[in-house]
Amino acid sequence: MTFKNRLLHTGLLAAALAMGASVAHADRPALSEDIYKPASDELSASNRLVFQASRDDRFGQVLPLNNAQNTVAVYGDDAFVEIVAYGPGIKLLLADGVHADRVASMAASGINFSACSNTMTNMGLKEEDLVEGVKVVNSGVVRIHELQRADFTYVRP
What is the pLDDT of residues 49-63, one digit of tens each? Predict the structure, then answer.
């Protein structure tokens, strides 16, 4: 295949994916401009970290949990920690999941968890399928991006 043909195929594929994505999410409400803007309590801590959870293997789920707990152990009340789960990592936050008790305990102790609504829709999940205390955001990647814009340190374990 020539470079020109590869370029054409790539462009057509990108256009098809973009059209499919817009059709799949046409029934969703438009995002308000500040839906992802961190709240003042999130910004008051000097040590702000966001951890990505996007894998469903044991190591990919345990590591962000360990990292979040270790961060809070070091910084205490001067830390705001959030774990954002999307894609296969959403399984970390399921109420019937392997880590449900640990996630619930961590959420009760002040560690924040966000679940991607896009992933939940694609997997047929509802908010009641999640561990109590997990916040649902429209896009996990956008949540991470907005937290980075607010000077959060992004960690992808």
Answer: 999 999 999 999 999
